[in-house]
Design brief:
- The complex is a heterodimer of chains A (185) and B (718).
- With 185 residues, chain A is mainly alpha-helical.
- Chain A has two domains: 84 residues, RNA polymerase sigma factor, region 2, helix turn helix motif (Rna Polymerase Sigma Factor, Chain: A, Orthogonal Bundle); 69 residues, Winged helix-like DNA-binding domain superfamily/Winged helix DNA-binding domain (Arc Repressor Mutant, subunit A), CATH 1.10.10.
- Chain A starts with 5 loop residues before the first helix and ends in a 7-residue tail after the last helix.
- About 10% of the residues of chain A have low confidence.
- By secondary structure, chain B is mostly beta strands.
- Among the domains of chain B are: 26 residues, no CATH class; 141 residues, Immunoglobulin-like (Sandwich), CATH 2.60.40.3710; 66 residues; 221 residues, Immunoglobulin-like (Sandwich).
- In chain B, strand 43 and strand 44 form a beta hairpin.
- The C terminus of chain B is likely disordered.
- Classes of the chains: A mainly alpha (185), B mainly beta (718).
- Chains A and B meet through helix 1, helix 2, helix 3, helix 5 and helix 6 of A and helix 1 and helix 2 of B.
Chain lengths: 185, 718
């Protein structure tokens, strides 16, 4: 989600609703996160560009009808993104290069331990790919995009309770399929 | 390992295993995907074209009259403004009526906060107006001499100086004296309010930095013909040769480009160091410190009283540690520079490259000894390991609980970077080696970039900041890393910090604002200084800020000084202002700027005479821009510069287009000067300045210290 204070973003949204020519500011604010989310799902640059274009074109067109529900504007963009990606999924299966994940903040010598930990992370994200689409989307929005459950609910067109259930089921399935994980230190 | 707690998941994932999976998911966030900036720009253009085609949905009919076609005469500049314009209906909220019974006054600038300076003020009427009476009814604050022109029902108000004043809130009022073409007067005055942008800047000078090589490509990778078990990797000063100690205690060298190994000392070497100039090599062998001059070859030796354990170099010569302290060779023999503790197990670890500091361990504690003062400070927690120096000896790295901690040689933590095996380069990049990857990161923790996959243990930069060695499979390799991306100039970096700080304050984000302060900065905003508050609350409220002056005033460490003007508003109208003088210091080590000092000036009312809105300081002249047109005769005696002794300096002020220029100056870098604008200065309306205006500034640093405001792009307003 963007760092812009809600009231500032609200002002941008109101302007864009009144005059679509103001939409550029919202595009600038949210392009990066939406593109990153799309890329994480389609895993191919050209496809990510196509889907991202589609998302922002749809958003621009629908802007006058946008209703502020008290949630961040990005949640609405994610909603369009989730639907656009779902459409895309019907015709293509994304691949998931594992090397795109890394996290050096896991820190702390010895290095062998870091490597093992990194492998665990790669393995768990690889398993996310095999989850049912709804669970997968909920987990990506929660853990990759750092969204709040209520915002995920907006993005997925579900209730917060349903999102919690999807997350619980998804994580439980990952636990079962990952087997024994090393205990946290 | 780093564990992250997400309270939202507490009632979703109540099982410990599930939480563990969630933590792994949180940790494995994706890196930024490949992105074509051309695509991003093209999509934006496509969206904007589409938006123009859609027009102002929900916007009144008169908004469309202000589209690009209708205002073609005003040129592209106005078109750009229109893209970002919300048209405000000034006379009534009922915009749907097309009746001519009422006069509507609108402007594309109304309520805008960053109006460009190079354009007229456009005032649009919904019906033909009587030109003379309307022009006579125009009032502008601040006092501005203007010319009028008409295009259909649009009145163009152009300052005769050519441009609008920067950083200024304008109020343009059409008084009730204005009449329509049919003779109907306005029922009430209509006021348009807007704020202008900062002054324009000339193009920045070309960056002296080299064109960066594409990241992520290592070149010249090859193995060096050295036996297994080597240690103590050192590069020659010219980065051509690598020196090592073998497992048998031999000191050997090998050309980095490849070639024959040279045995420098056959055995018994336990520690060695190259002099800063690279012409001498000191090593410990057989309880002695031997000094080898490389060309022509000669050897001298020192026989310490106590057995030496570690050797290094200062500017004046060789130094070494023994059980009880640090020694050097003086004119009259060996001199104890500083003692080491006598309690616990003390082990010397590393001399700084300039020989002014030493790290050592005392039992489990990592210590940093300042050889000039003899005082030691503790680094990190028990068990912290020393990981390396910055090449300029101003910073060092040691292991923290979760990451590598960077601190200056005062022990003050400046940043942290991800864990790994680090080496700090002369180009201020840190390599992070590991079993699986090689990363590069800036000392402030930004710009983490994976350079290569594979095993890169114990990387060691060469002095040129390009080549480095690393271990793989027990063998020593060398490679060259691509040049880091060019760094922004010091003043740009400091300006970015000031803008972040001020925007956080304006948004009321105390924690975020506090993050821009160092210890001194926090003390300054702790409440003890009158008029200095981190968060500005109440009515009138903090509506905007702008940077009045910005200078680099010192180097080593880089120090910048900014005068920031904070504008307070009530009901969208600027009513008062005060200035804060911020001093920013770049921390040694991470190279980040922090606010180190602050002082607030008095609260001044606005709208009562001319105001200074921009000051550009250079060594030879000072330019003072006002928001109002001035009475030229009031300028020479009213705008003066005093040096630190109160003596007036500079030539006679020259006045043109709201700007007073005082030339013939020879400002001394770092010395105090004061700009004084006396109340005798009058605007063209005959109003005197509300009060004397004083601005204390320092003579700007020379070319080595940074750039001045008029050489860099101006920051965006809040």
């Amino acid at each position: 989600m963007s760092d812009l204070p809600r009231h500032d973003e609200g002002e941008l949204v109101e302007r864009a609703k009144q005059d679509p020519r103001q939409f550029g500011a919202l595009y600038d604010l949210h392009f990066q996160q939406i593109y990153r989310f799309v890329y994480s799902r389609v895993r191919e640059q050209t496809a990510a560009e196509d889907v991202t274009s589609e998302i922002f074109m749809k958003a621009l067109k629908a802007m006058p009808r946008y209703q502020d529900t008290g949630r961040p504007f990005a949640a609405w963009l994610y909603q369009i993104a989730v639907n656009a990606i779902a459409d895309r999924y019907r015709t293509m299966r994304p691949s998931y290069p594992l090397e795109d994940f890394h996290d050096l903040s896991i820190a702390g010598p010895p290095l062998e331990e870091q490597a093992a930990h990194r492998d665990e992370i790669r393995r768990i994200w690889a398993l996310v790919e095999a989850l049912p689409p709804q669970q997968k989307t909920a987990l990506v929005l929660k853990f990759q995009e750092d969204m709040k459950i209520e915002d995920i609910a907006v993005a997925m067109g579900k209730t917060p309770g349903a999102v919690k259930l999807l997350i619980h089921r998804g994580v439980s399935r990952l636990r079962d399929e990952a087997g024994t994980l090393r205990p946290a230190e | 390992m780093s564990m992250r707690h997400d309270p939202e998941l507490d009632d979703v994932l109540q099982d410990q295993d599930l939480m563990r999976v969630a933590e792994l998911l949180h940790e494995g966030r994706m890196t930024d995907p490949p992105l074509d900036d051309a695509f991003r720009s093209a999509l934006r253009r496509q969206l904007m074209n589409r938006a123009w085609g859609m027009g102002g949905t929900g916007v009144p009919w008169w908004s469309k009259l202000l589209g690009p076609t209708g205002l073609a005469w005003a040129g592209a500049a106005v078109g750009v403004v229109l893209i970002a314009t919300v048209v405000v209906l000034m006379a009534t909220g009922n915009s749907s009526t097309g009746t001519l019974d009422q006069v509507y006054v609108t402007s594309p600038m109304s309520d805008q906060s960053a109006v460009r300076l190079e354009q007229p003020i456009l005032v649009k009427f919904n019906q033909p107006m009587d030109h003379p009476s309307t022009e006579a009814a125009v009032q502008i604050t601040p006092a501005t001499t203007v010319a009028f022109s008409w295009q259909s029902n649009t009145l163009s108000v152009l300052p005769t100086s050519g441009n609008l004043a920067p950083n200024t809130q304008y109020q343009v009022t059409i008084g009730p004296g204005a009449k329509t073409a049919t003779g109907k007067p306005l029922t009430e005055p209509k006021t348009i309010t807007f704020v202008t942008s900062p002054p324009p800047s000339p193009s920045p000078s070309p960056s002296p930095s080299p064109t960066p090589t594409p990241r992520g490509v290592l070149t010249d990778q090859h193995q060096l013909p050295l036996p297994a078990g080597i240690s103590n990797i050192r590069w020659s000063a010219d980065s051509s040769t690598v020196y090592v100690i073998t497992s048998k205690g031999a000191l050997e060298s090998v050309p980095a480009a490849g070639g024959e190994v040279t045995v420098v000392v056959p055995d018994g070497v336990s520690s060695f160091a190259l002099s800063t100039e690279g012409d001498r090599l000191a090593y410990i062998r057989g309880g002695k410190v031997e000094i080898l001059t490389l060309s022509p070859t000669s050897t001298t030796e020192i026989v310490p009283v106590l057995a030496p354990t570690l050797v290094g170099w200062t500017k004046s010569g060789v130094e070494w540690t023994a059980a009880d302290g640090v020694y050097t060779q003086g004119a009259d023999g060996q001199v104890k520079v500083a003692p080491l503790p006598t309690s616990g197990t003390v082990t010397a670890v590393s001399f700084s490259p300039d020989g002014t500091h030493l790290t050592y361990t005392q039992d489990q504690s990592l210590q940093l000894l300042d050889l000039a003062t003899g005082k030691s400070i503790t680094l990190g927690n028990a068990g912290a390991q020393f990981l390396g120096w910055s090449p300029d000896s101003t910073g060092l790295m040691y292991s923290g609980a979760q990451a590598i901690v960077l601190s200056d040689v005062g022990g003050k933590t400046s940043s942290s970077v991800p864990a790994g095996e680090p080496s700090w380069s002369s180009r201020d990049e840190i390599l992070l080696g590991s079993d699986t990857d090689l990363y590069e990161v800036n000392p402030d923790g930004s710009g983490l970039t994976r350079l290569a996959e594979g095993t890169f243990h114990l990387p060691t930069w060469a002095p040129n900041g390009t080549a480095f060695t690393y271990f793989r499979g027990g063998a020593l390799f060398t490679a060259s890393a691509p040049a880091p991306p060019p760094r922004p100039p010091a003043l740009d970096s400091a300006t970015s910090v000031v803008n972040g700080f001020m925007q956080a304050r304006k948004a009321g984000l105390q924690d975020k604002a506090t993050a821009y302060l160092d210890d001194n900065g926090r003390k300054a905003y702790s409440g003890s200084n009158a008029g200095l508050n981190l968060l500005v609350t109440g009515d009138p409220g903090f509506s905007r800020y702008y940077l009045l002056t910005q200078e680099i005033i010192a180097s080593e460490p880089d120090t910048a000084q900014f005068v920031v003007r904070i504008v307070l508003s009530h009901d969208k109208l600027d009513v008062s202002t005060y200035e804060e003088t911020l001093t920013l210091v770049r921390t040694q080590g991470s190279q980040q700027f922090f606010v180190d000092g602050a002082a607030a000036g008095p609260l001044l009312p606005l709208g009562k005479g001319a105001e200074v809105v921009s000051v550009d300081v250079s060594l030879g002249s000072v330019k003072i821009t006002f928001d109002s047109d001035l009475m030229p005769a009031s300028v020479p005696a009213g705008v003066i510069i005093l040096d630190g002794k109160g003596k007036q300096v500079g030539g006679t002020p020259a006045y043109a287009n709201r700007t007073v220029t005082i030339g013939d100056l020879d400002l001394k870098p770092g010395e105090n000067y004061k700009l004084v604008v006396l109340p005798t200065v009058q605007d063209v309306g005959g109003n005197n300045m509300a009060a004397e205006y004083d601005l204390t500034f320092l003579g700007p640093a020379d070319a080595h210290g940074g750039k001045h405001k008029d050489e860099i792009p101006s920051p965006s307003p809040s």
